[in-house]
Design a protein that fits this description.
about 240 residues, alpha/beta, TIM Barrel, 8 helices, 8 strands
């Protein structure tokens, strides 16, 4: 279960001491990554040396409406600082224009892929609470066309977080693209982020296709799974 979790700290007022604690927890619990803002990437990389915990950095967070140039520069800086994964916010208002600005979105995503080539893992954050089902499917197709690795539900800073319906739709869209011959779609995964705070919530989104979970409640979740209380001690009557 721990290897499904990106252990996340994205508050604007986060401190170096909090990032230190985040990394210590991630090392202890063997989470997939820690996910931080650009200013903390170097610190996280240093603290996690010798572990198999990756460092993810958000790009264009959290509105997604930054210029392509700014996003590309942020992506390059994160990779240079040692980030192994980038969680990039889609410029989702471009999906809501009439007609939708698909070409502009695809151009930006391809520029980001070029700036952070494989083996860097690129995840595209949709902000699903703001999008229709049709727009979610379109965003999934654009991410696949640009060669990204993952589609992600939300930032956790705008509207509701992940829902079972969102994850099921995104996973289904990837499977349909693969069925139609989009080979890259078959290698992509779905990340559910925002509002996943318990073992039950984690299991529900994994059951419908989530391959990764973004949460600031990772320690709470794994302790709950082990039958421990919040202090790490055995929970009475659990």
């Amino acid at each position: 279960m721990a290897k499904l979790i990106d252990h996340t700290l994205l508050k604007l007022d986060a401190t170096e001491e909090q990032v230190k604690t985040l990394c210590e927890e991630a090392r202890t619990e063997k989470f997939a990554t820690v996910c931080v803002r650009l200013g903390f990437v170097e610190q996280a990389v240093e603290l996690l040396k010798g572990s198999d915990v990756g460092v993810a950095c958000v790009v264009g967070f959290h509105e997604g409406t930054h210029s392509t140039e700014d996003k590309v520069n942020e992506a390059k800086a994160a990779i240079a600082a040692g980030a192994t994964e980038l969680d990039i916010v889609l410029n989702w208002p471009l999906l809501q224009t009439q007609p939708p600005s698909y070409a502009a979105i695809l151009s930006e995503l391809r520029a980001l892929r070029a700036a952070a080539p494989s083996p860097a893992v690129l995840k595209l954050i949709f902000e699903t609470s703001q999008l229709s089902p049709q727009q979610i499917v379109a965003a999934t197709a654009l991410a696949a066309a640009a060669g990204l690795d993952c589609v992600k539900t939300s930032t956790g800073f705008c509207g509701r977080g992940a829902s079972v319906q969102d994850v099921r739709l995104m996973k289904g869209a990837l499977e349909e693209l693969q069925r139609r011959g989009w080979e890259g779609a078959g290698k992509m995964f779905v990340k559910a982020s925002g509002g996943v705070r318990s073992v039950g919530e984690l299991k529900r989104v994994v059951a419908v296709g989530a391959g990764r979970i973004g949460t600031s409640s990772g320690v709470k979740i794994v302790r709950e799974a082990r039958g421990e209380g919040v202090d790490g001690q055995a929970a009475s009557g659990y």
